Amino acid sequence: MSFDVLIKGGWVLDGTGAPAFRADVGITGDRIAAVGRLTGAEAATVIDAPGRHVMPGLIDCHAHGDALVFDPEVQLAALRQGVTTFVLGQDGLSFAPASTPETFAYATRYFAAVNGTHPSADGPLSVRELLAGYDRATALNTAYLLPHGTIRYDVMGAAERAATPGERAEMLAHVERGLSEGAVGLSTGLEYAPGRYADAEEIAALCAPLGGLPYVTHMRGYGALAGTGMAEVADIARRSGAAVHVSHYHGPAATLLPLVDQARLDGLDVTFDTYPYLRGSTILAMVALPSWIPAADTDRALELLESEPVDWDPELWPRITFSHVPGAEWAEGLSLPDAAAKAGVEPGEFCRRVLIDTRLEAGCVTARPDEGPEGEESVRAILRHPGHTGGSDGIYVGGHPHPRGYGAFARMLGRHVRETGDWTLEQAAVHLASHPARRFGLAGRGLIRPGHAADILVLDSETVSDRATYAAPRTLATGVDDVLVSGVPVLAGGELTGATPGRALRP
User: Fold this and answer.
1) 228-251 tens-digit pLDDT
2) pLDDT in tens, 292-318
């Protein structure tokens, strides 16, 4: 027997939830050719794996690598955790479909602190063109959700109202075209502009063509408001018949999990992703701007910030740490009160200046009210739920990002398997690989099985650990030194090989 790559003597976690078994894995081209005791087999590349676990590549169900997936630092951060696929187009805002330069510019500018600036694309841009740009240009696979906010802006601009029937029909045409070009679902960001102005009727109409692909939502409320958010999710699911997937589902488990369980008992197909941290990260404008300032209209928002008094919420200030402040990078990593004190102004005035000077581009890490022991117990309970899939919500923009992009999956494999026992390794492979592959229609992935794509990691379960912290967020994880994507080694000895076999995945 001869293979291109042979992984010898590891404990295989095949992604079905079955117990690990000792086996070799032979790979030919981009596919797994054989799994078993491959005595006498030869290969051009041999990876010795005794004492380590061989797992299907992990799928990050919520990543903001839309522009930065091309960055080798981001690829290394993901691969060192065993992540081989990013699901992009999250929170209703990304680069395509944009039929005009204005739409592309809006999506880029408004979410610059989240998605970054695309290194080569410009508007107009179709989903087909965006996916073609990812294909074989990075070490990671990419899958793409149609961003509702981008589509809405393309049709309605910054309008703060319900869509007309004609506008809904035009948005629906965008969705149908995007699905035909390879999108794996539709996303909304109902706390961001312009998605926040859509009602359930509009969203349900756009979900109608999804078939088995998911409607993925940053809900209208989390934590104490999760009941309101989930009621709307259920309404949209009933109206459209779509499967639904809730992004970064965080808050008190005693409140959140019964909402999911009830929806599933009612016959709705509901899953969710979450990351194992208590702090969040987003754009400063979403957290700080009062609702009367039109965030979707940057020029008007800046005009009002310059001319009108703002009644800021002072209880917010201690919860904000700057992650991205272009032009004032010295403030990155500082809390808002500390940065304001260093600048010699009041916190509200400093917030106003940052929003104006960055043209609403600033990003931040935010402490949530549920931080503390009870919050940690909620994280653990949410991870254990069968509807859970792994997502980092990784944001890689700025000098001091949230550590989740560099540590979420390693933290789940280390702390939540080895230390707390929330999962077995067999369960981790389901939550982080096979379940996400099913959810996003990625057939032939997420399992170690002959004929499946050879996206594979080799894991040292005794040493895997996240090392990224809020103080040092760009610190790489440990415990994953060898990773293959489409049968090609992309991480060897813990370092990038320079290969870029990542595919733009289509359902």
Assistant:
1) 999 999 999 999 999 999 999 999
2) 999 888 999 999 999 999 999 999 999
Question: CB-hemisphere CA count at 13 Å for 8?
Answer: 15
Residues near 83 by beta carbon (within 8 Å), at least 6 away in sequence = 57, 58, 59, 60, 140, 392, 409
pLDDT digits (tens, 9 = 90+) for 28-42: 999 999 999 999 999
Q: How far is 49 from 54, CA to CA, in rounded Å?
A: 8
Q: By the 8 A CB rule, do 474 and 468 touch?
A: yes
| DSSP helix/strand/coil, 223 | helix
End-to-end CA distance of the chain: 32
What tokens were used for 240? 């459209």
* Chain length of the chain: 507
The Cα 92–Cα 286 span in angstroms is 14
C-alpha neighbours within 13 Å on the C-beta side of residue 128: 6
What domains can you pick out in the chain, each with its CATH number? 56-280+371-444 (3.20.20.140), 281-367 (no CATH)
3-state secondary structure of 413: helix
Q: Which of 319, 279, 318 is nearest to 401 (CA)?
A: 279
- The DSSP code for 401 is -
352/350 Cα distance (integer angstroms): 5
The token pair that represents 90 in the structure block: 């999250």
**What does DSSP assign to residue 159?**
-
- pTM of this prediction? 0.97
Structure tokens at 48: 């010795």
Nearest to 363 by CA among 194, 102, 110, 74: 110
What residues contact residue 3 under an 8 Å CB cut-off, 6+ apart? 26, 27, 28, 33, 34, 38, 41, 42, 43
Dihedral of alpha carbons 56, 145, 384, 396, sign? positive
CA atoms within 13 A on the CB side of 241: 5
Alpha-carbon gap, residue 354 to 285, rounded angstroms? 10
